[in-house]
Structure of CBM1 domain-containing protein:
Amino acid sequence: MRARTANSLLFLSAGITSALAQGTASQWGQCGGIGWTGPTVCPAGWGCSVVNPYYSQCLQGAASAPATTSAPATTSAPTGSSGGGGGPSQTSTASSGTTTLVPGNSFIRAAEDPNFHKYLQSEVLGTASDAVLGDPSAAAQFVITNGQLVQQLPTPLYAIVEPRANSTVMKLKVTWSTTLASSGTFSWSGDTVLWDNPSVPRQQNNAWLVCPDANGNRDLYVNLGAYAYNTPAGCADETIHAYTGSTATP
Ligand SMILES: *[C@@H]1O[C@H](CO)[C@@H](O)[C@H](O)[C@H]1NC(C)=O
């Protein structure tokens, strides 16, 4: 009886997986990771290689690693469209420099070196300046609502992705603005932050870059290319993720 139950479950979950993950991932494309619901099969001659818990990638000639695509229960997705009515939950405890998470908000952090557990924030804390990854002690708090990534401050800041100047531009800078503007749509996939804009083709909407500026700040960019492929000089590939622990841990 026990075996039969297990078999049924296995069958059921295989059915769900194939329903969600139809098709074949692209060359250099994502093929697995926590929260990934896209294709897990790579093109012929390509294998699915684990880059980190959040990201597996099709690599030429790689041996496919065992699929580890199911999300652990601990990485619960941020509750979707918070906000509904009265706007962002504004509270002074979400100001710069605090690390106690206000319920309903998320920290956002990178999961790969060299920016492992660096947290999204403003370059000049709490102000409309460049979007950077920085120390946990200065982690900002966020919601994604109506396609906008909102930094939760008494005066909210909205993430704005710069327009693409021409087709040779492969990364787009992210800045914080006190003004709501439509520069594309932010969303969660599980706990992973996505951005898309129908007029800006991307190979994958979860690929980000962190590129140091002249002062060593870790500026955040949308990566219009594939994750970990043709990475611009000086930049590091990152995916960025919600973290809803009560404090921003290193
Ligand atoms: C594309 O835009 C970038 C950034 O504005 C600029 O540096 C570059 O010269 C432009 N290239 C072409 C071919 O227009």
About this structure: The helical segments are 2-20. Residues 1-21, 67-77, 79-97 have pLDDT under 50 and may be disordered. Residues 165-166, 168-169 surround 2-acetamido-2-deoxy-beta-D-glucopyranose (CB under 6 Å).
